[in-house]
Write a structure and sequence with these properties.
The chain is an alpha+beta fold. The chain contains two helices and eight strands, in the order H-H-E-E-E-E-E-E-E-E. The two termini are about 30 Å apart.
Length: about 190
């Protein structure tokens, strides 16, 4: 469902479907059956990739996305949150050399300011905010960002100082990384 439209999408049937750890598992399973057994191609469109239904308001928050519970508090980085206890936030804020979606000059400020030399998408913003994700599943490897009213989850890979960014409104995926040279220590 998350792949670009493909000519064979309407006739594709998976061998198996795994639905686990979702409070709404039964409803999801019914929609999976509607999609693949009854041919309703839009049957899964209402669901998040995480918990709960997709945000139909158009607000595009990260609530309910990959490991984010339905009542999570995401916020701009606050004083004292980029500390040794929060190694990811501290490492990202201390390093000034990042690129995102091919755009260099991305800066994660220690005050929670996010600045880009150019937008990561046409018509996008060059200023925003960022902060830590504070839940049991994502607190060590994920940061939250907002650019031009669009929220993103940034899932970091500690060995190669890179991240996968998921735009929460539509799950558009982009990539970012530390600009060379990559430090020899792990990011977090």
């Amino acid at each position: 469902r998350f792949l670009p439209p493909h000519a064979a999408a309407g006739s594709f049937k998976p061998v198996s479907a795994h639905v686990n750890y979702h409070p709404e598992k039964e409803d999801r399973m019914v929609d999976i059956a509607r999609r693949y057994n009854e041919g309703h191609l839009d049957a899964l469109d209402r669901w998040n990739s995480g918990e709960g239904l997709r945000d139909a308001s158009g607000g595009g928050t990260c609530v309910g996305k990959i490991g984010m519970g339905p009542h999570e508090d995401v916020h701009r980085l606050r004083d004292g949150e980029a500390t040794a206890e929060r190694r990811l936030a501290a490492g990202v804020a201390a390093s000034k050399a990042w690129q995102w979606n091919g755009v260099e000059g991305v800066r994660f400020g220690k005050d929670g300011a996010l600045t880009l030399e150019q937008p990561i998408e046409a018509g996008g913003a060059t200023e925003g905010v960022w902060g830590k994700v504070d839940n049991q599943w994502r607190k060590h490897d994920t940061l939250w960002a907002e650019l031009g009213g669009k929220q993103y989850l940034l899932v970091f890979l500690r060995h190669n100082w890179s991240f996968v960014a998921i735009r929460c409104a539509d799950e558009w995926i982009t990539y970012g990384q530390h600009v060379a040279p990559i430090p020899e220590r792990m990011l977090y």
